[in-house]
Amino acid sequence: MNEHKIVSRDEWLEARKTHLAREKEFTRQRDALSKERRALPWVRIEEDYRFDTSRGEQSLGDLFDGRSQLIVQHFMFGPDWEEGCPSCSFWADGYNAFVGHLAQRDVTMIAVSNAPQEKLDAYKKRLGWSFTWATAIDGAFSRDFGVTYSADELAAGEVHHNYENQKFPIDEAPGASVFYKDGEGRIFHTYSCYARGLDMLNAAYSYLDLTPKGRDEDDLPFPMSWVRRKDSYGA
Fold first, then answer.
1. Are the C-beta atoms of 204 and 213 separated by less than 8 Å?
2. Which residues 6+ apart lie within 8 Å of 226 measured at CB?
């Protein structure tokens, strides 16, 4: 870590207040961006997506669990994988803490993967999670929402990810998608984000951003190369 400037308390307060003004401006900009996000147009879902869950087979509408808003966390766990993605697991470690709070605001949050339900249940038990986790039967849901790619797509050199064509290293990607169900049972896709758009959903990174070293990932082989499943640190 580079040697840092050391000042008096009064000098620190002056610098802190200058930075506070920028933080407040950023907060106002974030609020405006969130309002703009909520005003985006919607797309009606016509497909009959089916999911395997601990309650048996369910439709996309069933996953709302009686609420009008649904957040789906696209969790990387392929059909033939033995474990879930370490980075997705890093995000998922926070889900239990706030799914109950979201429910009080008419929001159901779940995770969806392509792995068989028995693998998801075993991984949940291993890591102490209790949030709802469903399997996208036949993978159509995951493909349609840009988080699963075929071998042919990968072999062609580019896939459509994060709203553009780009090279992608594997057949699974993380993401988050939001849906709304109206009083007539019609379902609408309102929002999806991927890549760095998921940063805002990880509280641990927000805390690291407050520290002197920050995320401290610049010299790593790739960001998050330090991340392990929470039961594997020190192994």
1. no
2. 217, 220
End-to-end alpha-carbon separation of the chain, Å?
26
Q: What is the pLDDT of residue 1?
A: 63
Element housing 191 (H / E)? strand 187-193
Alpha carbon distance 23, 97 (integer Å) = 26
Domain 43-199 has CATH 3.40.30.10: yes
pLDDT for 181-210, tens place per residue? 999 999 999 999 999 999 999 999 999 999
CA-to-CA separations, 193 to 69, 72, 162, 197, 201, in angstroms, rounded: 16, 11, 7, 5, 10
Cα separation values, 143 from 17, 24, 129, 149, 153, Å? 47, 39, 26, 6, 11
DSSP H or E stretch at residue 73? strand 69-74
Q: What is the pTM of this model?
A: 0.94
